# Entry
Amino acid sequence: MDFKLKLADAIARVSGLEPTAAADLLETPPNPEMGDFALPCFKLAKLLRKAPAVIAEELKNNIGRVDGFDRIENVGGYLNCFTDKSAFARTVIERVLNEGDKYGSSSEGNGRNICLDYSSINIAKPFAIHHITTTVLGNSLRRIYDHLGYRTISINHLGDWGTQFGKMIVAYKRWGDRQVIESGNSTRELVNLYVRFHEEAEKDPSLNDEARAAFHSIELHDPENWELFEWFKKVTLKDVAKVYDLLGITFDSYNGEAFYEDKMPAVIKELEDKGITKIDNGMTIVDLSEYDMPPCIIKKSDGSTIYATRDIAAAKYRKETYDFYKSLYVVAYQQNLHFRQVFKVLELMGYDWAKDCVHVNFGMVSMEDMTFSTRKGNAIYLEDVLHALIDKALEIIKIKSPALENKEEVARQVGVGALVFSVLYNGRIKDYTFSWEKSLNFDGETGPYAQYTYARSCSVMRKAGEFSRDNIDYSVLSDDSSRALLRAIDSLPEIIKQAAEKYEPYLISRAVIDICSCFNKFYYDNRIMDDDIAVRNARLMITDAARTAIRTGLFLVGLEAPERM
# Structure
């Protein structure tokens, strides 16, 4: 039984509203004493030309009895609706346990394709801490859309084109050692060369001319330099795979900027043929002044293309290849203008699917006021941060759980989860400063707290062993802490949908913490292993439902759920 839909149908029957409109108006009151659902009749006053209190009273009288509800009251213009406590408990718990890890899933996606462009690392540069948000945000959105029945295509749009590769080739030929690079931490060795190039170029500016020439040779597919260029990509991807493995992230495509280079002429010709471009100071541009934007540069005066041209080509390729329902670009807010320009150009080209391209922007992450400049060589490597968190988690676990058998594995789950959860616990557009202390707190609103609560629920179920799922007294789950836990669990499916609609995984992170908080209160308020078998079984059922909901929520935001901690 879906209580919200039942109630919405009853309201629709007597109000003239469509059931979906009635369901959209229903709210969950912050205080359980105000009901399980509430209809604010203020929103109907203009439509029905009546005072909210009058509307609420008429609805209450006309609705009558609704299956699964105890009573409906008019309180100050709100229609407060109270479910039958036993029926609500049974319905919520049975749904969770029947669906298992699919709890909150749906078929709304109907197999439609969603492209997600995220992480997008730069070749021959460090996988630094500032890449964490795009990487874990994109991964979480992928899991959420998969959960809702979409078919996702994860794309790592590599930064693998530009003059910096000319610099890398010059630096490698002058100072590099292939054996050192391949035997050590390849990306760091390449970064050292990149940093040295800039140091030397400050003393000898002619190196910059040499670098430009080297990159031009890549554009012409010079065999020797092209082989080096491909090798830089190979060793970088091998290095970053270690970070992706730690995060549990995979990609369907690594097509980056270089992949679209041979598709540029067709894009430029199409733009010119459609009369969208003009020449300005030797550059080929699309004039967007009519839309309060600066011009979108398609081709520079020297004939080279830029990011925008390649992104237009990439959008066309993805539509032709995947026929996406939506194409999401999980990229920092500094690129807001860039994507507005690209999407507008696609629209001017006559592609109605331009409206299905979405820039999922986000704020920046910082640590201890440090900046991230590869040129100066002071980037904070994401791999270092993850391993430091794992080490710190191991220290804590050795103190809290000295008898735990798989300490190293749990430390990896907790350390990685601490960073991921801290990034996805606030709205994505906010700038974020990472705190070691807060992220590893087992008692705060953190990943370790959620994982520890999950492990606690698993411990309860292990100690209980097998139990009858038939002899259950659901009426005992009517106390305040049980009801709060049921409401928190029941809200997760709707929150998963909201997270997808708003591109905001933090909604799920917050919901998980809410379930954990409610479960811990329930755990302390109630004797789960009660002498009364029917009471014990009911409390074990709600514990099992809570752990399933927590595990599901943790997975959707990219965390593992250790069963012992």
